[in-house]
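Format notes (please read before filing issues)

Several people have asked whether sequences and structure tokens are stored in separate files. They are not. Every record keeps both together, in the order shown below: the sequence lines, then the token lines. Line labels are part of the format and must not be stripped during preprocessing.
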Amino acid sequence: MRAVAIARLAVVAGAVSVLVAAPAAGEDVFRGSDGWKTGPSTSRVVIPADFFGPGSDPVSSIDLMGDPVVNGIDTIIERRDDVALAGCPSDGTTAIEIVALSLQGTVTVTYNGGQDPEAWDVRVCLSDCHVDPGACPQLSPGELVGSMTISQECTGGGTFTSTLPVLPKYIFTPVVGGSDMVLDLGLEGQHPEELVPPEPVKWTHSSAGGPAVPAGHPVDSNCDGVDDGDTLGSSNFVSGVGLARCTCNPSDSTQECITLTPEEALFLSHGVLPGGTDVVGCCLPPGFCKELTMQECLTQGGSDVVMVSPGKCGTVGACCFPDGTCREMAPGCCECMGGDPLGPQTRCLGDLNSDGTDDACQEFIPTVSEWGLVVLTLFLLAGAKIYFGRRSAKSVA
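Then the structure lines:
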């Protein structure tokens, strides 16, 4: 009797062959640097009147974007520990710390109700506290060190959650003459804000879409013109990029995949076609699935042809395989060949960025820096009030 294999559960009379993928081996994630790029963004803020000088009007927004430190990267986060991943699924945790934050922008400041506009350049870096925590007595040991829990959810990657403490420094420079105004929230006695992505972030072992951080690159964390250390460099972990479909068992589905019993395979090896007039979904190149008799299918496709149960072919679409390749085929055939179907009428895109994975099989998400702008807005608001209050107190004194 022919065996019908259903990956989740198969119980049929006679010979039974159940297609269940063996647990996938884990690939450890090694310590290293993660680089991020921040695109142009308008940061909504509330800087009170008189902050830039007597009579200056309130400011409600600042245009910010990344100011790259290396390879187009403006933000560098370092994973301090190797993470051992025993298999799929599995997870592990590492300490993380931000070592570079470099944003730039502009703001137009007016005075006395919209008069005398003047342009100021803005730089956002890390507080001096990130370089010398001892200079900030309000901080407890390790307060500027965060954590990341990495989960392997498929052979190529998975997701992670993280908590990243950040204390920024703002440097305002008038475009036409004048002195800088420096606002370092750490030196103002503030504690770090923790950047927490709103949902698990995808990652992959591939270099897909992730900017590379060179090892040993010097970094000036607090923008004082002095190098504060060298980067670890990128490793086998790319954050912010993931496989469009990710599962530890690619064949884990309710798709019925037809396999030959040992007796049928033996007959076939001697040129005797099994199956008679039984109808199957026959997977034929380049990706079609036709309902034929088993004998017709074996005649047209050969002994290695993939067969599915009748009615399980489905509409052709993109199919992603664990090795990063993509083929357009019927979803039933895709699943029985160990792939992940992306849906009816989806298309493979090709490996346009030459990273070894078809672009259709990758999913890009917002960067930590982009999420961080929301938090930095709050920093700037709080910091402006603190600084303004301090200046007002001095002027009264």
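For reference, the curators noted about this record: Confidence is low (pLDDT under 50) at residues 1-25, 365-375, 377-397. The chain is about 15% helix and 35% strand.
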